[in-house]
Design goal:
The protein has three helices and 13 strands, in the order αββαβββαββββββββ. It has helices spanning 4-10, 37-50, 101-113, and strands spanning 19-23, 26-29, 67-72, 75-79, 82-86, 123-129, 135-138, 150-156, 159-163, 173-177, 182-185, 194-196, 211-217. It binds N-(carboxycarbonyl)-S-(naphthalen-2-ylmethyl)-L-cysteine and fe (iii) ion. InterPro entries: Alkb, AlkB-like, AlkB-like_sf, Oxoglu/Fe-dep_dioxygenase_dom.
């Protein structure tokens, strides 16, 4: 939940434009990943060569339309037995690829600019949306320590992000997320419901016919 001081200052400390506050504790840093674009895309190719994207199965038996992989000390996985963080890729039995320096750098700098200094993620979940893929409303609560924020980086085709409240039926706000946008979710927004609407058809000049989202987490 953050501490009393940061909760208090959340609403007061000004942000440099073009940065926006989406909710208490949630900051949208438009274009903040653009200076890292080349390095991040090269690192992604390296990671997905070692740990390819795959469509995981939910505990309820549904195959996800979003394809996923991970890098870092731990990776988020789902199968018929449940959701968890695992140090190894269940497809290969090997540890996930290491978190590249440029990922750590982008995540830590973004968190810091959003008011969460000292964030050092140990997990990065990498989501790939092809046209038609979507992620239904959910909370991220498999991480051990909710005082860490989550940093999310959008690459490729634009998507509509849905952001609700602490209860599934709370009203949702919609935000367009575009190539290079970074969002940081901490404090009172850390456990809010969120999701991504069905990706529209299109081709991005640098990324192709897909959207990639990186989410940096303190999982362990
Ligand atoms: C708000 N990913 O991987 S990123 C996920 O675009 C996930 O692929 C979406 O939700 C995507 O779990 C959304 C934005 C995001 C990530 C985590 C959050 C927003 C969040 C955690 C709490 C509140
Ligand atoms: Fe999520």
């Amino acid at each position: 939940m953050g501490n009393a001081m940061s909760d208090l200052f959340d609403n007061i400390v000004p942000l440099d434009p073009p940065f926006e506050r989406m909710a208490e504790g949630a900051v949208l840093l438009r274009g903040a990943a653009l200076p890292f674009e080349k390095d991040v895309l090269a690192a992604l190719d390296e990671i997905t060569g070692q740990a390819p994207f795959r469509h995981m199965v939910t505990p309820g038996g549904f195959t996800m339309s979003v394809a996923m992989t991970n890098c870092g000390t731990a990776g988020w996985v789902t199968d018929r037995t449940g959701y968890r963080y695992d140090r190894c890729d269940p497809e290969t039995g090997r540890p996930w690829p290491a978190m590249p320096e440029c990922f750590l750098d982008l995540a830590a700098r973004s968190a810091s600019r959003a008011g969460y200094p000292g964030f050092r993620p140990d997990a990065c979940l990498i989501n790939r949306y092809e046209p038609g893929a979507r992620l239904s409303l959910h909370q991220d609560k498999n991480e051990l320590d909710f005082t860490n924020p989550i940093v999310s980086v959008s690459l490729g085709l634009p998507a509509t992000f849905q952001f609700g409240g602490l209860k599934r039926n709370d009203p949702v706000k919609k935000f367009p997320l575009r190539h290079g946008d970074v969002a940081v979710w901490g404090g009172p927004s850390r456990l809010c419901y969120h999701g991504v609407l069905e990706l529209k058809e299109g081709v991005h000049e640098a990324v192709g016919r897909m959207r990639i989202n990186l989410t940096f987490r303190g999982a362990l």
